[in-house]
Design brief:
The structure holds two protein chains of two kinds. Chain A is mainly α. Helix content of chain A is 74%, strand content 3%. Chain B has a two-stranded antiparallel ribbon. Chain A: It is a multi-pass membrane protein.
């Protein structure tokens, strides 16, 4: 099946439609919430939470003995929240730093989860097969009810986001100020963290524990490059996330042996790289272009200043000089000379150059432009 | 206990020790999450190495995988240097991408590769004794024991040789640079050791649990001491202890050894986190409570100092005036009595000489913030210990 065939099948085939819809919604909601995680400098929290959710899944299964994905996700949510608040406890109560706290909770919870999973595998219960799909995710196991659940969470999340938009925004950029204004910062903080945990837990089934953090970060990091406005960033991140979901599903469906999760992550990573390079204001490409342009301008100024110092010693400022004397000056090239001619600062006559009145005046004011423009 | 069991415990302990040493420095340098990134992103290196050598224990594979780890570090630093995103975002972007590439490479060649992601991520220590190293026909022990043993040997040698440099550059980068140690060389040296250790340990305990073995013992030790040598020693001890107790726990539960070692590390951390003498949660909470009481005591003494009228110094009146609850007022009163700062006669509270000087001294300290005046008070009061 190639990609074209996939797009013609998307609307008719039940499985493909469900999976595509699921990954698109998931990408959108994680992108949206990921923007907050990235801006709050909690990028790696997603990684820690997704790992910390594993024991919750195992314990939920041990208690109920059934593989109802809603109950398992509830377990994951509880354990993810415990992990998150323990991380916060470690950071505030001890002198351990946030990276240590994240790494600790991530690995300890995950290890404990693995212990439980291997313990479950030894149990005489036919139901246990398939729990390990939460490790790497299997988009193919998505059914319609899962997609409805995701859609429901997305709607609630959108609603809360719009309702508390102002509070989220101000907490993001100036937490202390928010407190002095009388907002209940703890509540807002817990609210946004809970939604981030919720989004991560939802994604476990699709992309798995290990790759979930990229789903949260990549769309947001890409969106950040294109705008400085929070609203646009959240919107763009949602678009990028949904795009990665759909394209990733399309690619993995059109090839054999390609699991969906890693492909989605790689598509999202490509979007990030593209944004890093081609974003007009922050991108590396345009930054380099601006850098080169600035250097050229500076060299032009240097040549002009050099000429000015020569012309200064003559009574007639337009007294012609040979081009040769510019030769052992590093700012000089034939190109810069041409540019100066074009700007009408210099006139050329064979091998001789002379400064014009305009060029002389410009050069004179080259280094006090700042002060004159301020007056 | 048969010989396979002893070998497993030996391997587990060596892995734990080999991880604890670089882990201590990672925790101190606030780079703990780098170990997580390395442990994930070595996957493509392992896969490529496996394509070439067809042997999970070959030295070339270890070198290739370690190289991928270093590439990750360089990549993270490059992205961070562009200033487009923060460091943690850079880490979070690089390793899932690398890991995905590894997973896809495995999936695409699933037919002719005996390597699955579970094995790389989770490892299986129980099988380690079956892969034996034979030198000219003589069985000299499990391969992974030799691998991790040599890695540990190199790590210890490097640690002893460069201990001073590591110490200085960890705590004061500027000083290290001005003394002529290149921080970059030490940084990349540490990163290389971490990568190699991660690779060496991955087939025993799995990539993710390497992170636990690196961070948890060091973090636990850091809660107990602030001396680098003691911290290293404690971390090694905690690592080895969890490795052995974890093995027996897994044996009893018939579950994953790596998972149970991590669970032991988690329990150990939880205990220390709660009960550590000066930095544990309970100690911190007790200290905060004590400090609160002592602030109240000071307020109370000040009140007494400012009022000579009997009416203001009546026990019941104090309760109303400073607006404390009964229990609180009683604790403060008891504390003051115990320290001989007040005397109570006929329910009238009056300051003793000691109480008087204490109050003036404390107020002096609060105003001038000069430490020397209150040296003798630090013993008895948490408030002045900073």
């Amino acid at each position: 099946m190639d990609i074209q065939e996939y797009f013609s099948l998307v609307f008719s085939d039940y499985t493909l439609r469900t999976i595509t819809l699921g990954t698109a919604i998931l990408g959108a909601v994680t992108g949206m919430l990921g923007s907050f995680a990235v801006l709050r400098k909690q990028s790696l929290l997603g990684d820690a939470i997704s790992h910390a959710a594993l024991p919750g899944i195992a314990i939920a299964f041990l208690i109920t003995g059934a593989k109802d994905s809603n109950i398992l996700l509830l377990g994951a949510l509880v354990s993810g929240l415990i992990g998150t608040f323990w991380i916060r406890g470690i950071i505030t109560k001890t002198h351990l730093k946030s990276d240590t706290a994240l790494g600790l909770i991530l690995s300890l919870f995950f290890g404990f989860g693995m212990l439980l999973l291997t313990f479950i595998q030894k149990q005489p219960n036919a139901n246990q097969a398939g729990l390990d799909k939460y490790l790497f995710g299997q988009a193919a196991t998505l059914v319609e009810s899962d997609v409805w659940l995701m859609a429901g969470v997305t709607v609630v999340c959108l609603f809360v986001l719009l309702l508390f938009w102002k509070e989220f925004k101000i907490l993001l950029f100036d937490a202390d100020y928010t407190k002095t204004l009388g907002f209940n910062t703890k509540f807002i903080d817990v609210l946004i963290t809970t939604f981030i945990v919720l989004a991560i837990v939802l994604g476990l089934q699709t992309v798995g524990v290990v790759l979930m953090s990229a789903m949260l970060l990549a769309p947001a990091a890409a969106a950040r490059q294109w705008t400085n406005s929070l609203g646009i960033m959240v919107f763009l991140a949602a678009i990028f996330g949904a795009f990665s979901g759909v394209l990733g599903t399309a690619i993995s469906a059109s090839q054999n042996n390609l699991s969906t999760g890693p492909i989605i992550v790689l598509v999202a990573a490509t979007v990030v790289v593209f944004s890093f390079v081609f974003s007009p204001s922050r991108g590396l490409l345009f930054k380099q272009i601006r850098f080169i342009k600035n250097r050229r301008d500076l060299e032009l100024h240097k040549t002009l200043a050099f000429m000015y110092h020569i012309a200064e010693t003559h009574e007639d400022i337009s007294h012609p000089h040979t081009i040769k004397i510019l030769n052992n000056f590093q700012g000089y090239t034939r190109g810069t000379l041409q540019k100066l001619v074009k700007k009408n600062y210099v006139t050329l006559d064979g091998n001789m150059w002379s400064l014009t009145e305009e060029g002389f005046n410009t050069a004179e004011n080259l280094y006090n432009q700042q002060s004159t423009s301020n007056e | 206990m048969n010989s396979a069991q002893i070998e497993i415990q030996l391997i587990a302990s060596l892995v734990a020790i080999a991880c604890a040493i670089p882990g201590t420095f990672l925790v101190l340098r606030k780079m703990a999450m780098i170990s997580d990134a390395i442990s994930h992103s070595i996957l493509p290196g392992i896969v490529i190495g496996f394509f070439i050598t067809q042997d999970l224990n070959s030295p070339l594979l270890i070198v290739l995988a370690a190289l991928t780890g270093i590439i990750t570090v360089v990549l993270v630093e490059y992205i961070q240097k562009t200033g487009l995103v923060k460091e943690d975002t850079a880490i979070g972007l690089v390793f899932p991408a690398m890991f995905s590439i590894g997973v896809i490479m495995i999936a695409k060649n699933a037919n002719d590769i005996h390597l699955d992601v579970d094995a790389v991520l989770l490892g299986e220590l129980a099988f380690a004794p079956f892969d034996r190293l034979e030198i000219s026909g003589v069985d000299v022990g499990p391969k992974s024991l030799w691998i991790i043993g040599s890695i540990l040997l190199v790590t210890i040698t490097l640690l002893l040789a460069f201990f001073k440099e590591l110490k200085v550059s960890t705590f004061d980068k500027g000083l290290a640079a001005s003394l002529g140690f290149s921080p970059a060389i030490i940084h990349y040296g540490l990163m290389s050791v971490s990568s190699v250790t991660t690779v060496g340990a991955f087939d025993a305990v799995g990539a993710i649990l390497v992170v636990a073995l690196m961070i948890a013992p060091a973090a636990t030790a850091y809660l107990l001491t602030t001396d680098l040598k003691k911290m290293l020693g404690l971390a090694i001890g905690f690592g080895a202890l969890s490795a052995i107790s974890g093995y027996w726990f897994a044996h009893w539960l018939d579950a994953s050894i790596a998972g149970s070692i991590t669970t032991m590390l988690g329990l150990l951390f939880l205990i220390v986190y709660l009960f550590a003498p000066s930095k544990g949660v309970i100690a911190v909470m007790y200290r905060e409570k004590q400090q609160r009481t002592e602030v109240s005591l000071l307020t109370f003494l000040l009140h007494l100092k400012n009022h000579t009228e009997k009416r203001e110094r009546h026990v019941n009146h104090l309760q109303e005036h400073i607006n404390w609850q009964k229990v609180r007022a009683k604790t403060v009163l008891d504390l003051a009595l115990k320290n001989n700062m007040i005397t109570i006669s006929n329910d009238i509270v009056s300051l003793t000489k000691k109480g008087n000087t204490f109050t003036s001294k404390a107020i002096d300290y609060i105003i001038t913030n000069e430490d020397t005046q209150i040296e003798d008070m630090k013993e008895d009061f948490f408030l002045f210990r900073g």
